[in-house]
Amino acid sequence: MTTYTATVTVRLKRGVLDPEAETTKRALERLGFELDALRFTERYEVDLDAADADEAEARADEMAERLLANPTIHDYEVAVVEA
Amino acid sequence: MIAVVQFGGSNCDRDAVRALSDLGFEAERVWHEDPLPEETTGIVLPGGFSYGDYLRGGAMAARSPIMKSVREAAAEGVPVLGVCNGAQIGCESGLTPGAFTTNASARFQCEHVYLRVENADTRWTAAYEEGEVIELPIAHGEGRFELDADGYEELEADDRILFRYCDEDGTVTDEANPNGSLGNVAGILGDSESIAVLMPHPERASLPQLGNTDGRGVLAGFEG
């Protein structure tokens, strides 16, 4: 078994309104910054033992599917590295 | 007996029991770590902030063990009503489609709203007329209904939208939409008519002492 860190990045699907990002963007503009757009992502780092990277990725993928992301509003991606 | 499921962080469970009792129902709170009583004839997922809204409103509660029993009971036809946080739990658990997420205003909205009854031919809305306008309180930060275009089309085609936010006259407008919900949707049915969720609080508008009893009709839905 090898220890891996799976990084799960969860973001809103394109087109889904993100009021927190909009509010943050306006706050940055009030501070004098110029920007076109701003997007939030949520990032989870999961340490886990697995036989190989594929297994680690499959397990992290299932975690995202079943809890970390809400498929109605979110897309997600998983990246795995040896810890 | 109507089971009002109490999660850590629920805060409308007592209100629901009181309102249901006033309507003549036998109702009691059931702690989420306890089993659903065998004599359960109805289930309320109450409002509040279960698990501190960690991750997303309702996300944790939806995956708690008692929800397996709730889904099984729902599949057997036991009526289930999710209110506010309970509506979020309903969507997160797959009992109802879509998601209730961050208000377009990015603010917690605590106010009275008008709702138009879209379908009066359900147990939850039989007390009203189609097109009737009722007034209920809302209190939520994550109440914006979202659903993909195909899912929404299906919901409309199947007449599963119960309530839409509207103005006092019953006109559905952007101004009357307190949270940016898709189609001003405030409440929907699940796969079966016995499952319903809504963001507004009928239990907070069910006692004469509160000055508004418009919500009684929704709770009366447990009569079937």
UniProtKB/TrEMBL annotation, chain A:
<dbReference type="InterPro" id="IPR036604">
    <property type="entry name" value="PurS-like_sf"/>
</dbReference>
<dbReference type="GO" id="GO:0004642">
    <property type="term" value="F:phosphoribosylformylglycinamidine synthase activity"/>
</dbReference>
<comment type="subunit">
    <text>Part of the FGAM synthase complex composed of 1 PurL, 1 PurQ and 2 PurS subunits.</text>
</comment>
<dbReference type="GO" id="GO:0005737">
    <property type="term" value="C:cytoplasm"/>
</dbReference>
<keyword id="KW-0436">Ligase</keyword>
<keyword id="KW-0658">Purine biosynthesis</keyword>
<dbReference type="InterPro" id="IPR003850">
    <property type="entry name" value="PurS"/>
</dbReference>
<dbReference type="GO" id="GO:0005524">
    <property type="term" value="F:ATP binding"/>
</dbReference>
<dbReference type="Pfam" id="PF02700">
    <property type="entry name" value="PurS"/>
</dbReference>
<dbReference type="GO" id="GO:0006189">
    <property type="term" value="P:'de novo' IMP biosynthetic process"/>
</dbReference>
<comment type="pathway">
    <text>Purine metabolism; IMP biosynthesis via de novo pathway; 5-amino-1-(5-phospho-D-ribosyl)imidazole from N(2)-formyl-N(1)-(5-phospho-D-ribosyl)glycinamide: step 1/2.</text>
</comment>
<keyword id="KW-0547">Nucleotide-binding</keyword>
<keyword id="KW-0963">Cytoplasm</keyword>
<protein>
    <recommendedName>
        <fullName>Phosphoribosylformylglycinamidine synthase subunit PurS</fullName>
        <ecNumber>6.3.5.3</ecNumber>
    </recommendedName>
</protein>
<comment type="function">
    <text>Part of the phosphoribosylformylglycinamidine synthase complex involved in the purines biosynthetic pathway. Catalyzes the ATP-dependent conversion of formylglycinamide ribonucleotide (FGAR) and glutamine to yield formylglycinamidine ribonucleotide (FGAM) and glutamate. The FGAM synthase complex is composed of three subunits. PurQ produces an ammonia molecule by converting glutamine to glutamate. PurL transfers the ammonia molecule to FGAR to form FGAM in an ATP-dependent manner.</text>
</comment>
<comment type="similarity">
    <text>Belongs to the PurS family.</text>
</comment>
<keyword id="KW-0067">ATP-binding</keyword>
Automatic annotation (TrEMBL), chain B:
<keyword id="KW-0067">ATP-binding</keyword>
<feature type="active site">
    <location>
        <position position="201"/>
    </location>
</feature>
<keyword id="KW-0658">Purine biosynthesis</keyword>
<dbReference type="GO" id="GO:0004359">
    <property type="term" value="F:glutaminase activity"/>
</dbReference>
<dbReference type="GO" id="GO:0005737">
    <property type="term" value="C:cytoplasm"/>
</dbReference>
<comment type="subunit">
    <text>Part of the FGAM synthase complex composed of 1 PurL, 1 PurQ and 2 PurS subunits.</text>
</comment>
<feature type="active site">
    <location>
        <position position="203"/>
    </location>
</feature>
<feature type="active site" description="Nucleophile">
    <location>
        <position position="84"/>
    </location>
</feature>
<dbReference type="GO" id="GO:0005524">
    <property type="term" value="F:ATP binding"/>
</dbReference>
<dbReference type="GO" id="GO:0004642">
    <property type="term" value="F:phosphoribosylformylglycinamidine synthase activity"/>
</dbReference>
<dbReference type="InterPro" id="IPR010075">
    <property type="entry name" value="PRibForGlyAmidine_synth_PurQ"/>
</dbReference>
<comment type="pathway">
    <text>Purine metabolism; IMP biosynthesis via de novo pathway; 5-amino-1-(5-phospho-D-ribosyl)imidazole from N(2)-formyl-N(1)-(5-phospho-D-ribosyl)glycinamide: step 1/2.</text>
</comment>
<dbReference type="GO" id="GO:0006189">
    <property type="term" value="P:'de novo' IMP biosynthetic process"/>
</dbReference>
<dbReference type="Pfam" id="PF13507">
    <property type="entry name" value="GATase_5"/>
</dbReference>
<comment type="function">
    <text>Part of the phosphoribosylformylglycinamidine synthase complex involved in the purines biosynthetic pathway. Catalyzes the ATP-dependent conversion of formylglycinamide ribonucleotide (FGAR) and glutamine to yield formylglycinamidine ribonucleotide (FGAM) and glutamate. The FGAM synthase complex is composed of three subunits. PurQ produces an ammonia molecule by converting glutamine to glutamate. PurL transfers the ammonia molecule to FGAR to form FGAM in an ATP-dependent manner.</text>
</comment>
<keyword id="KW-0315">Glutamine amidotransferase</keyword>
<protein>
    <recommendedName>
        <fullName>Phosphoribosylformylglycinamidine synthase subunit PurQ</fullName>
        <ecNumber>6.3.5.3</ecNumber>
        <ecNumber>3.5.1.2</ecNumber>
    </recommendedName>
</protein>
<keyword id="KW-0378">Hydrolase</keyword>
<dbReference type="InterPro" id="IPR029062">
    <property type="entry name" value="Class_I_gatase-like"/>
</dbReference>
<keyword id="KW-0963">Cytoplasm</keyword>
<keyword id="KW-0436">Ligase</keyword>
<keyword id="KW-0547">Nucleotide-binding</keyword>
